[in-house]
Amino acid sequence: MPPDHGTAAMIRPARPDDAWDLAVAHVRSMQATYRDIVSSEHLEALTPESNVERKQRMLGEAERRVLVAEIDGRVVGFAALSAQTETTCAGPTGELQAIYLDPAYWHRGIGQQLWDGAVDLGRRDGWHRMVVRSAAANLRARRFYERMGCVLEEGSEDTLDYLGVCIETVRFELVL
Predict the structure, then answer these.
(1) Is residue 136, in this structure, part of any structural domain at all?
(2) What does the alpha-carbon distance between residue 125 and residue 107 come to, in Å, rounded to a whole number?
(3) pTM for the whole thing?
(4) Is 125 domain-assigned?
(5) From first to last of its 176 residues, what are the pLDDT tens digits of the chain?
(6) Which end of the chain is more exposed for a tag (fewer CB within 10 A), N or C?
(7) Greatest CA separation for the chain
(8) How many domains are there within the chain?
(9) What are phi and psi of 18, to 5 degrees?
(10) CB–CB of 99/115 below 8 Å?
(11) Helices of type H across the chain
């Protein structure tokens, strides 16, 4: 099916009752994105039921801001942001901690709409730059961040525990 870049999503702040939809979008996206990066056993063990409590906690954290992409009344993706304590000479830095979209909605421009909403939110919060980590092997995400204007930070390689799996990561930066 050819890409449909014309799908308009409503980008809005997440509400507590969005937790289930966030869990569904996150699990579906993880299973599609990480199938060549993480063991199939680990991905098969991910379920919305095992993820919804984590999403409820995330939505309750005062220091985290979550935006959702909604289409026809259904949340199909989200972006989570957090202000970092890091401040450079240029000013405060924020972090895009997650951006996930149900794979059924990939290639429709919705990821970019979520990204644009996150960047706008960061600017309104006074951030001068935004950083985001990606699995080093997640070439789809890396290409997306580069298309959005991010620059790979040389020497930023690290290993993070993500949902019980150690993943090699790299960090990107976007000057706002």
Answers:
(1) no
(2) 29
(3) 0.90
(4) yes
(5) 334 556 899 999 999 999 999 999 999 998 999 888 888 888 888 889 988 998 999 999 888 999 999 999 999 999 999 987 666 667 789 999 999 999 999 999 999 999 999 999 999 999 999 999 999 999 999 999 999 999 999 999 999 887 677 889 999 999 99
(6) N
(7) 47
(8) 1
(9) -90, -5
(10) yes
(11) 19-33, 40-45, 48-60, 110-124, 139-147
